[in-house]
Amino acid sequence: MKTPLHKTLISRLLNQLGLVRLDSQSLSSIPLWQRLKVALAAFIALFVVTFTSLQLADTTSTIILLASMGASSVLLFGLPNSPLAKPWSFTGGHLISAAIGLICSHLFNDLALMAAATIGCVLFVMYIFECMHPPGGATALVPVIASTDQLLGYDFLLYPVALNVLVMLAASLVLNRLLLKRPQQKTPEKFDPVHLHQDFSPLKRLGLQPEDLLSALNSFQTVVDVSEQDLEKIYTQAQLHAYQRKSGEIRCRDIMSADLITVNADTPVATAWQLLQKHKISMLPVVDKQQQLLGVVSVADFLKNLHVPHYWGLLRHLNGLLLKRGHKKHHKRRVAELMTARLTVVSEDDHIAALIPLLSDQGLHHIPVLNRQQQLSGIITQSDLIAALYSVAQQPH
After folding, report:
1. What is the largest CA-CA distance in the chain?
2. Is 18 left (phi over 0), alpha (psi -120 to 50) or beta?
3. Are 160 and 62 in contact (CB under 8 A)?
């Protein structure tokens, strides 16, 4: 059915105005609680910066700098992964720009020429020093505007510019880490970080490589507001979304093992080991009476805390577990002392595409599945996922 012309025109107009985003991220996709936390972080940071500056610097210059610090807070908290919000971009963007503005205010007498020369130099120098930060342009104009009344001294770079920058930087690092729970982006590994070999992780061995994405970014003749790491994540998510669309509605509940062998926190360690051996499995879920998942105990948990000098010492320890001979202290140990409590889990309603990065790149061999009441309802192994992917591949398209 053809869309009426007037609706098409309205849709294009709204898209041009940015009111309807047809080709970019929708800000409404960010959870409401996350938006509230971002607003709270910006509130705290700007309050701390302003309060500190009022105590240590003069009131006039502090008030003038509030505009650029406010603009920076939007980038630091609202767009934290942007190259424009990196610590060096923020620090260099303000300090270098302030120095340029101060120099231009002493070199020129005409306000129009002074302002134009300042912004032109600021942009050029930001490109050279890789510190593009738009609010730095406002900071650069502070001594220019002040020159209509009096020329600022070079102490302006320390008080309040450097003071504001350092306090805002410290506040943003702390708040992003503690309040917003945003980990610092690490330099991408050149090898598989799970198995510590020089091959790429499984998902990266085919298709686009990190250097391909970086090359594509550098091919643009303008600043692209996304990092190589974020672009890689976007590409991976797009691949998984496309796979989900093509493979249909296969959920975790459809492929999980539901008839589970479980233990509780008070189960003796020796009993847990015997269950692992009897059922030829490598992991046992640990649950309470309400089937709430407390953790898992696996073969690896039996071995990871061993301190044996050689292979034969390991065999003696395992023999003690199997035959209940020796190692008396282990007979009194309970599963709760051995189990792993920090787990990666999925929901029954999750699409199987969500399992692919977990079981391929994170080194996991089995993933617990929870129902809507957060109770354990199944386990999915690598074999389960391989069988499901093979089944999808055999379906006619």
Report:
1. 93
2. left
3. yes
pLDDT along the chain (397 residues), means of 10: 65 64 64 91 94 82 83 92 90 96 94 96 95 95 90 88 94 91 62 55 65 76 71 75 72 92 92 90 92 91 63 62 54 84 92 85 87 94 86 68
Pairing state between β 346-347 and 366-370: parallel
**pLDDT computed for residue 128 by the predictor:** 95
Residue type, 381: T
pLDDT of residue 15: 64
**CATH 3.10.580.10 domain span(s) along the chain:** 253-394
- State the pLDDT at residue 196: 54
Structure confidence at residue 121 (pLDDT): 97
What burial class does residue 181 get, using C-beta atoms within 10 Å of its C-beta: 0-12 exposed, 13-18 middle, 19+ buried? exposed
| Cα 230–chain centre separation | 9
User: Quick one: pLDDT at residue 200?
Assistant: 64
Q: Please give the CATH topology (third level) of the domain spanning 253-394.
A: CBS-domain (3.10.580)
Report d(CA 389, CA 255) in Å as an integer: 10
333's CB contacts (< 8 A; 6+ apart) are 268, 269
Asked if 253 and 378 touch (Cβ cutoff 8 Å), the reply is: yes
Q: Return the SS3 of 369.
A: strand
Q: Where are the beta strands (DSSP E) in the chain?
A: 283-287, 293-298, 346-347, 366-370, 376-381
Please state the separation of Cα 357 from the chain's center in Å.
15
Strand-pair partners of 161: none
pLDDT at 3: 61
DSSP string, 278-322: HTT-SEEEEE-TT-BEEEEEEHHHHHHT---SSHHHHHHHHHHHH
What is the model's pLDDT at position 189? Answer: 54
Six-digit token pair at 280? Answer: 């030829």
Phi-psi map region of 227: left, alpha, beta (phi>0 left; psi -120 to 50 alpha): beta
